[in-house]
Amino acid sequence: MSIDRQRVEAVRFLEAHGFRFSPTEGWTGGQLPASVAVLDAMHSVLTRRADALEDCAVGSDEEAELEDDLH
């Protein structure tokens, strides 16, 4: 799953738990079923994946995933 798709899924998850986004207030409302530690772990996984894609080989599936995320 590309990083963009992961972001879309994250937004859907937040909205499913009652959160709403406002450009002036950011994410508000809602109730998360996970602890801050779990959310930090999820952020860490996504960050490591993004870092791994930066060094991918030309012509690889990872390069295609990275290109999908940039466009």
Notes on the structure:
This protein is mainly α and 71 residues long. It has 3 helices and 2 strands. It has one domain. Strands 1-2 form a two-stranded antiparallel sheet. The protein is elongated and about 45 Å long.
Range of strand content:
5-15%
Write the H/E string, N to C. HEEHH
Shape: elongated
Let me know the largest β-sheet. Answer: 2 strands, antiparallel
Number of strands: 2
End-to-end CA span = 15 Å
Low-confidence stretches: none
Could you say how many structural domains there are in total? 1
Helix content: 55-70%
Number of helix segments?
3
Radius of gyration in whole Å, from Cα?
15 Å
Describe the protein's topology.
Elements: H1 3-16, E1 19-22, E2 26-29, H2 36-54, H3 61-70
Antiparallel strand pairs: 1-2
Write a brief structural summary:
With 71 residues, the protein is mainly alpha-helical. The chain has helices spanning 3-16, 36-54, 61-70; strands at residues 19-22, 26-29. The model has no long low-confidence stretch (mean pLDDT 80).
List keywords for this structure.
mainly alpha, two-stranded antiparallel ribbon, 3 helices
